Amino acid sequence: MPQSNNENSMSIKVLYFASLKEQLGCAEQQIESAGINTVADVWQLVSEGREITMTTLNSVNQEYADLDTPVSEGDEVAFFPPVTGG
Amino acid sequence: MISILEKAFNPWQAISDYQERMQCAGQYGACASFVGTMRDFNEGDTVKAMVLEHYPGMTEKYLEKIIADANQQWALLDVLVIHRVAELLPNEPIVLVAVWSAHRKDAFEACRFIMEDLKSKAPFWKKERIVGSDQSGEKNRWVAKNTSGY
After folding, report:
1. How far is B141 from chain A (nearest CA, A)?
2. Domain that holds residue B70
3. Does the predicted interface ipTM exceed a cut of 0.85?
4. Residues of B in contact with A83 (CB under 8 A)
5. pTM, entire model
6. Where would I find the beta strands (DSSP E) of chain B?
7. B63: chain A residues, CB-CB within 8 Å
8. pLDDT digits (tens, 9 = 90+) for B28-53
9. Nearest alpha-carbon partner for B82 in B48, B120, B110, B122
10. Domain with A15 in it: what CATH number?
11. How far apart are CA B150 and CA B117, in angstroms?
12. Is B73 within the bounds of a domain?
């Protein structure tokens, strides 16, 4: 996974939860915002070419989003499997 | 009120304590509640324990949204939602939804709505510690999806 440790405003925070976190071996990373316009762009950068499964959900700034949702620097993007609470 | 707890809780005591402190005494004629409890079986396997993961921040935000949506649809006086996270054992309560209203229709319907929306969209994930029926010993398994409640 492309990764950088600087947490300045030029980066985007990406989070993973549950089984997806285990599959990727990563809970959180920072990516450069250059060239990122949507959630789909974030996935393409972090997934190293893996297809996103139909059931994978995502959020931007802690609200449900979809692959076309705009993303910009300073945003928090998360990917996670179907929820199973309650 | 929303509460995410890492330790076991008593939902009946929580309802009683919360109701005593509510500002709307005399106004409510109905309280409907739902308590979800951890089973010791799932999909034919014995479940020894469970770990509940959540998305801190988004979970609370989403639960606030569900309660706001319910307040738009029904005349509610108060709502209490408590959800466990971290390690749980069988027979421990996982979730409590309690709703107070002047008349029973609003409390019943809103309680159901809040619970179903929580199950289908609030960001929590269950991982079970199971003993498989094939004698292969204990292993961990993520619960793949919740069944529909309707």
Report:
1. 9
2. 2-36+55-122
3. yes
4. 119-125, 146
5. 0.93
6. 2-5, 30-37, 41-42, 45-54, 78-84, 86-88, 93-101, 124-131, 138-142
7. none
8. 999 999 999 999 999 889 999 999 99
9. B122
10. 3.10.20.30
11. 11
12. yes
